[in-house]
Amino acid sequence: xxxxxxxxxxxxxxxxxxxxxxxxKGKTFVCLLLVLTVTFVLLFVAPIISAYQTFFDFLxxxxxxxxxxxxxxxxxxxxxxxAYPFYIELDDTDNISVKELHSHGEYPFVIICDAxxxxxxxxxxxxxxxxxxxxxxxxxxQMLFVQKDAVLYLCIMILIFIFLIYFFGSFFSALxxxxxxVIFNAIFHARLSYGELYKLSxxxxxxxxxxxxxxSLIPQVILPAIAGILVFIMPIVMLGLYIHALRRTPNxxxxxxxxxxxxxxxx
Length: 267
What we know:
It is elongated, with a radius of gyration of 27 Å. The relative contact order is 0.12. The protein contains nine helices and eight strands. The strands form two sheets. A five-stranded mixed beta sheet has the order 3-4-5-6-7, covered by helices on one side. It has a three-stranded antiparallel beta sheet with strand order 2-1-8. The protein has two domains: 2-45 and 157-250, no CATH class; 66-139, no CATH class. By secondary structure, it is an alpha+beta fold. α6 crosses α9.
């Protein structure tokens, strides 16, 4: 599609960024939708589906029978699973500290059951829940297998909700980055309309979205904090390059409009 060709040209040769402005709003929307969908599948859907299958496989084949209730964890012997993206530990003889919990931060999903609490890390956020908050309810692997299909449907609904936030959040992010575009527009005398600047802001988000997936493949090489900074700065850099390619010199004359010629009054 021409829109993707112009996007690739502009990504690697910013001097060809004027090609991006030729694309209409519909093509821009479709391009953004497809690129963000692919990125979302790589970043979220694939890991979660893999984690779902891994989770039920290990429950079925490897984990000894256990019960979690308001009275605590009951298990025959301590158990640990390290299978990326999961780290799961069950041990009713120990109480872990916050430092020990975050020592497993390289795993996206961490679940640890100790003698008194259920600890979880998901999406970088940690949470610890005392067992007495469970009330009269209890949990065992057999209960999950009964509701396996329901868990899958829940995962799908959560993914749809996250995608909607991820997709429409990109339009809001472009609105914020358009502030930088307005500044670059004034610095480089590009004389672009705000609509054109907003369109460039949308395109500037696509390369960082793909970089997020690349960074997720090499967590040991690029720290998450550094990757986050690069993803945040990249759209600003791309906007600067795009608008610089569209600059006009202060002395450059506007093309003469034949329909706006000065009238000559004869006396």
